[in-house]
């Protein structure tokens, strides 16, 4: 293929960008699965996805121009879009130690940089979500404990992943706590095991009563 076939070249870059975005999206959804919709609306999620796309494009650009494919470039783009994260998991040092005989030579690796960036974005997203989650828990914890227990049982019987016996054991375990602690723990269980949207919807229904 000629290197001047720009529609194909741009198409392969687009494929790499889409795959990198899907990878970053999957990480966010896995981490904030109980509040994924609001998490994706934060600016930090957009930054995280954007940096993943940029890094993948840089990797593909280096591979493409250092070792241009002689034929169809789509397999190379697919492999890069799927496997570029392997580079982040390797210990490729960006800064070499001044003294190679030192016990703990100073170095900075791609894996460390990405890990710190990933953790930073997670913390920022979590802080953005925490404000509204606190307000929701405050509203829920003001409700009678009996009503919160009822909502927990309803969720258990409606859920596929959390059997009713598990919830009953949890409710029984909370009998030793005072009413305020029980209300907060029951509310947080609904928020954690259900979702932000679920607790918000159930609160509206309960408050109407």
Describe, in short, the structure shown:
The chain has 209 residues and is mainly alpha-helical. The chain contains 10 helices and no strands.
The tally of strands reads 0
Indicate the overall shape.
elongated
Secondary-structure element series = HHHHHHHHHH
Which runs of at least 5 residues are low in confidence (pLDDT < 50)? Answer: none
> Residue-averaged pLDDT, rounded?
84
- Summarize the amount of helix as a percent range: over 70%
State the assembly state of the protein chains: single chain
Radius of gyration from CA coordinates = 24 Å
Task: State the separation between the terminal residues, measured CA to CA.
Answer: 69 Å
Overview of the structural elements:
The chain is mainly alpha-helical and 209 residues long. Helix content is 74%, strand content 0%. The chain has 10 helices and no strands. The chain has helices at residues 6-31, 36-41, 43-66, 74-83, 85-88, 110-141, 145-158, 164-173, 179-194, 196-208. The radius of gyration is 24 Å and the shape is elongated.
